[in-house]
Amino acid sequence: MEQDIAMRAAIIAVIAGTTATVPVVQAQDIRHGRRLALEVCAICHAVLADQTRSPVAEAPSFETVAVTPGMTAMALNVWLTAQSHPTMPNIILSRTDVQDVSAYILSLAE
């Protein structure tokens, strides 16, 4: 619970400090984002719909992230492109990959 609050606070702080705009993500990007999530993120996170338990207990499921109040594509894009995350390995994704993973995560809220 404390980590969820810390994650939300970090996301909000990063968003407040940026003026970057994020292009609209196309629906077809969701499949690519899902593949990336399975390849890159699933080692720590539960990345599939209805998967509630992450391999790393402290890592929130993507579904939990998706339903976080106020979660947006911009928030996810900023979080995934920030230089350092004390609770995550430093994974480097292209801008398109970040947008695709963000689109996939948000699709889990639907």
TrEMBL record:
InterPro entries: Cyt_c-like_dom, Cyt_c-like_dom_sf. It holds the Pfam family Cytochrom_C. Keywords: Heme, Iron, Metal-binding, Plasmid. This is Cytochrome c. The keyword Ribonucleoprotein does not apply. Residues 28-109 form the Cytochrome c domain. It comes from the Bacteria. The lineage of its organism: Bacteria, Pseudomonadati, Pseudomonadota, Alphaproteobacteria, Hyphomicrobiales.
